[in-house]
Batch of 3 targets.
Target 1
Amino acid sequence: MTKANRTKPIKVVLAKPGLDGHDQGAKVVARALMAAGMEVIYTGLRQTPEAVAQVALEEDVDVIALSSMAGSHLAFCRRLKPLLDAAGLDDKLWIIGGNIPRQDHDALRALGFAGIFATGARLGDITAFIEGNV
Amino acid sequence: MNDRLRTDAIPVVNESGIPIRPLYTEADLAASGGTAMLGGPGEYPFTRGIHPLMYRKQPWTMRQYTGFANAADTNARFKYLIANGQTGLNVAFDLPTQCGLDSDDPLADGEVGRVGMAIDTLRDFEIAFDGIDLDRITVSLTINGAAAILIAMYLAMAERRGFDVRKLRGTAQNDILKEFIGRGTWVFPVEPSLRLVGDTIEYCAAHAPKYSPVSVCGYHIRESGANPAQEMAYAFCIARAYADEVLKRGVPIDEFAGRLSFNFNIFGNLFEQVAKFRAGRALWAKIVHEQYGAQQPGSMWMRMIAGGGGSGLTLEQPELNIVRGAYYALISALSGAQTMALCCYDEAYTIPSEHAQRISLRTMQLLIEEMGLCDTVDPLGGSYYVETLTSQMRAEMERIIADVDAHGGVVGLIASGSLQAQVSAQAYQRQLDIEAGRFRKVGVNCYRVDEETPQVEFHAYNEADAREQIARLAEVRRTRPAGAVARALDDVRRAAADGANTMPAIIAAVKAYASVGEITAALTAVFGRYREPVRF
């Protein structure tokens, strides 16, 4: 769908998974998505997989986005995937950003994360990817 | 002449918002207030350094941030660094430990030993520091939300090993207010968090008077989006909040101010950083002397660790981070830092390798052994530019502090989330500036290379380490005296509820091998847990 014929703004839940407290990047991305006209629900820190799945379901979001800087992304996503599947959210766009080493990208894609935005990604690329895939 | 005029016409403004001229002369220095706030090194207001001889007497302490997996692996790395000439330790804990969770807590799944060493009980601390002479090697604990517990463990471990706690030196980060702005390892709500910091300062002033229970961090506020002047000004506001908390208990300022220390960021313009530190030393001395009435020179010293600057390092062309690290070390030395910890070149990728840590250590040793950085105190003192900028930075910091005070003080601004929202807005603007090429980062928005094949050795995370850690905790739980643990945890709860200083009860609990998670649970039963205000 193109931006022009969208009837309502894209809704994104942006979550900080696990115990990682580094939220500077997540907040920057949240602002960029809002500046691009999206509705952003930023969860704040310390989200469990259950909490992410619940807020995504309750808020009826189009995009489930995670920001991970502390290395536990694979462990977290492996626990999150079945929860999102069970909640019928497998048709939503799942993306992840942060300190995500290249060697983990294939595993994350296999889990269903269509967009991976590692350190150095540009804000415009993130918004364009979301707009092009929702 | 045309060249000069043309240069003069280009507006150059440093990150703190101060316009920078192409040339500074005596006239600029006079206009900025001259050298009235200079003094000699070791003399109030300490612009030139807190000691008369500075590094001539003793070089800065070298203290690389280290910790991963478990106590045994970390102990081995500590010994490697000490064998390579490191003079202090700076301990990294894993996130469960930092958040007050035991390794077997469901919330710790996948995080045990990942970004630092896992600590559950005093048993782990005994292993971590085995064979390390705590009189010779001072230890800095990078711990905040769970700081009271980990300080208690450190003091208990040192005492059991026969060290005199009254003479024990060392530092805990224990700056919880900045965790609400950046870094995020908070546990309790703002007010009881502040009380716990007060408990540690009050306890150490009486029982471990050489120990520095707090290292107030401008560092992470800067990483979260603050400019250099804000970084230091906000840190001073937070340090004042801790001082106020201790003063209201009736402890005189001169009995604890000398053990407050600071942790600042180094990335950015070299001269702005040097001026920031020189200005900050004078301003902190002025605050402690004039506002708090301290009389002891040591109370007025802005003692600091510097050298780190994660935001300055890049994932792109990571070997350039070795060069950046060398400049950061140079800036720290020119600024009179007491302690240095450099970011390693591979940190944007992984937990630093032994090799990367040794390069950082050697970088500092090069400055000491080859470059003459320890020969002369405050070598940039007297420069028209540096002195003018120092005065201007000090004025800007004073303006920011006055602004915070006019808005009700830093504790309220943090509790409401408005300080977080402000620095976050600045971080967003910075990212836009980087992407537009207005804020230059070599390898990121200029001088890029197309094919990047960084030579970085990844630190492998071993799931078996987490299982071993959980097994060790189970073993401690099985073999410790259960009744004594239950009584000790009751005492912690009672001290928290009664408003007493919690440290004696926490120390008794760690000596009974109560775990970090159990003691935290006893405290949250009274204090509750922090709920983050999410504001934009």
Target 2
Amino acid sequence: MKPALAPQDIARQVQDARRGSQAAYAWLYRSFAPLVHAIHLGAVARARVDDLTQETFVLAFARLDQLREPERFGPWIAMIARRMRPAATVETVAIGDCADPPWGGVGPESMAQAGEALQAIRALPLAYRETLILRLVEGLSGAEIAALTGLTPQSVRVNLHRGMGRLREALGIAQRQEENNDGG
Amino acid sequence: MVDRPDPLWDPALPGDDELVRLEALLGRYRHVPAEGQAWALPPTSRAPRWRRPALAMAAVLVACAVGIAAWLPWRLQWSEHHDWAVETDAPALPRTLRVGQTLATSAGETATVQVARIGRMQVLPGTRVRLVDTRAGHHRLELLDGRVRARIWAPPGHFGIAAGDAETVDLGCAFEMQRNLQGEGDIRVLSGWVMHRVQGQETLVPAGSHLRFDASRSGIPLAETASVAFAAQVEQLDLAMAKGERVTGVEAQVAERATDDDRFTVLTLLTRYPALASGPLYPRLAAMFGETVPDPVHRQAWQQGSVHAMNRWWEQVPRPPKAWWLNWRDALG
């Protein structure tokens, strides 16, 4: 498991970025882009996610002087990202309707399953939605999610397990597993 | 308690088939960092943190300046012959004072008159005042007899009190004035300056000084700290000089008794009677202005009544009469 970001490292990079360090901007972008991407992916059509992610960083970097606790860059930029697209107007454009295919070289069945899973996650409460996308889409560990979001590890663990339970229910996975077990 | 392996927490651990399948499906949406991203953002596009209080202060100062710029003309503006307001507990006294009207307080009665918008004047018991004229920039009362206290914040000359042939002109100040039926009285200046003018003779009185006058002339301003003996000798010298008599013994006594607080008194004496510069008062005044070795050319010019020579010391007097705005506290009274 990769080590999670340390608060003092985040704070130092924020301070360097405030002084105009390109390396610090790049570090912050590289480290927190999965978080911002996950928030937008949980709220809008994929075609707009990359642009919104980019716009979020532009906005955040322009306002970097307003960040009072540099070590809490993650929760701060997450708030900026959420405010860029109010939760009440979550877009429900199907993945298959997007101008760009979600990925190339896979069959339509796999595309449909991915779209179904993402829609099911988007229907979950915000806390579960973002945590699950960070885990299942971005491939981050619980510890990394906690470091990025500023949540406690306990909260992340709870969100992961409850969110996963809700997702399995939504996708009928629990039922399928029981049927498989009965059949075995 | 032993932690069970948790593949949901740690992706490095093997998960169940459904978890692996979801990871594989959804992992294709994963964020791909933009390569060569340059964040050419101007980090100083916002004001630096240290500069923000300064900007806020500047904004406050600008707002204050705009407010004062609007308030001051309003304060000085006044319609011609518009009545003044009178505040008093005495039921017999009027609540306004119009041009030509006399306000008379009996023993035990007081009133406060709003001097247009530029200040207030307290009319003490046993006083009669008459409003002579009022308009923007020119407000004149006559003190027939009694005592008044005025606190004015306005440019020089806006407010004046007539007393017989004399006139006391406010130069932006707070002062107290009393006059009896014979035309004798005095003025005590609490802040700023007052000018007393009678029969062409003008006498400036600074804060912390008082001036006695009668119907035909004004005396020499004296510091409130001046001794009775010094005041008597100054009056004796003033009256003698007014008759064209030199009293060298008194000149010497005045020069000897004068303290630094009496500088303005000696300056007024020498200005009113330039011939006194030939006597002991000139070197005493020179010492008060820090000139331990008197300048004979300057002294000679003074004796001849040179305004230029007199201005050399008058200009060293702190807070000249024209700097009326520095007495801003009088605006609050």
Target 3
Amino acid sequence: MLETSNANGQIFTGDVQLVHAVGMHARPAVKLTKLAKKFQAQISVRVAGAAEWINAKSVAKIMAMRAAHGSMIEIMASGSDAKAAVAALVELIAADFPDGIS
Amino acid sequence: MNDTVGIVIVSHSKDIAKGTADMVRQMVGSEVKVAFCGGNPDGGLGTSVPLIVDAINDAWSSRGVAILVDLGGAETNSEMAVEMLDPERRDLVVVCNAPIVEGAVMAATEAAGGSSLAQVRAVAEELSAD
């Protein structure tokens, strides 16, 4: 799911369910971070409803978020390529972190 | 030039060093140069300055090299190895204050994105910050 906030026309958000069997452990965290780093946009993620947004480009923080299997991940990005960044991360997570995307 | 910071893993045990390097290659991929060394020249546990120098040169990148170490002697011998490098290389090598396995994976992840040596080191050391 991908939608645009009209707040300032620059923030893009997406929600995607974490289907990975053991949640956001080390290998998915590395893939997510590597993919996020390919974009100029500022990208944040959180488990739906969590108080804090986490920098998607910080592998230590992504690993530490310990998102569980089945949890909903929210993605928020701003910047020139924010829309593409959100779409790419949603695809990565929805496709269960296949090799070769990041 | 699209070079990425190189990673060197220095453990007292060759098995640990190799295993850590394997984890980095599998988890992060092959775009980051990773070299490792472990054990003393007699095959026992320990670290060896000449082997560390070789590993640094193997992982060499124009962007620099980040070294991840395990216990005591690995750190002091790594610092000694850095001192033995060509002067123009010395300033481009850092020994990270980070856990060896986690630090190597995080440093390599950061390096893969094209980050500077200072950024790579900062990410590895984030783990020991608190």
